[in-house]
Amino acid sequence: MPKASEKLTEDRKNEIISACAKLYETMSFKDITIKEIGSAISCTRTSVYNYFQTKEEIFLALLQSEYQSWIDSLNKIQAQYNKLSRTELAQAFAHSLEDRKTLLKLLSMNLYDMEVNSRIERLVELKVTYGKALSTVEGCLKKFCPEMSRQEIQDFIYSFFPFIFGIYPYTAVSKRQKEAMVAAGVNFLEISVYDITLKEVKKLLDV
What single string gives the DSSP state of each residue in the chain? Predict the structure, then answer.
């Protein structure tokens, strides 16, 4: 494929993904359709199918993009600092997820639907990027905590990543959910992505 055609294809895909991300800020996953996404882009709605077969594939591409943005922020931390204390590393991890609310929302609320309704090749692309995220976190630990054993690093990763999947519901409590918890007599604490991540990472790093 000529480079101009490759660039046009990539630009179109990114436009579709960006439109999906914008809609996801104010609409629920189930209410967003390819028709809605098509109405928000410069090309025709039917042309969306030239790039994605289902809306879930678009969301899967959005998730992949969010993972890559997180990877980029972690790589920037490694490039920017020669040394970090465990507390400073915990703070850096917490800040890296602070701006990734779309990532956290997708992982917590829509991962199953995205994966089951996407072609295997699209799913493989996501898993490659997910693998890079695992490796990047491991790279941060090896650089800034060289005293950690291989087993300790593995234990960190297999506690930290499942934790990430559950962050969103604790940090994005709606007004209706608050009212229901008050009526049910359930205590709840409003907490930010940064604060909840910092507490968990400090615990995992034994700070």
Answer: --HHHHHHHHHHHHHHHHHHHHHHTTS-TTT--HHHHHHTSSS-GGGGGGT-SSHHHHHHHHHHHHHHHHHHHHHHHHHH-S---HHHHHHHHHHHHHT-HHHHHHHHHTHHHHHHTS-HHHHHHHHHHHHHHHHHHHHHHHHH-TTS-HHHHHHHHHHHHHHHHTHHHHH---HHHHHHHHHHT-------HHHHHHHHHHHHTT-
Q: What mean pLDDT comes out for the span 44-52?
A: 84
Average pLDDT of the segment spanning 40-69: 91
Q: Please give the Cα distance from 62 to 68 (Å, whole number).
A: 10
Distance, in Å, from the CA atom of 111 to the CA atom of 86, rounded to the nearest integer, reads 31
Give me the chain's average pLDDT, please.
93
State if pTM tops 0.85: yes
Q: Please, what are the domains in the chain?
A: 1-51 (1.10.10), 56-167+193-204 (1.10.357.10)
Given its phi and psi angles, is residue 206 left (phi above 0), alpha (psi -120 to 50 degrees) or beta? left
Give phi and psi for 116, each to the nearest 5: -75, -20
pLDDT band at 192, cuts 50/70/90? very high
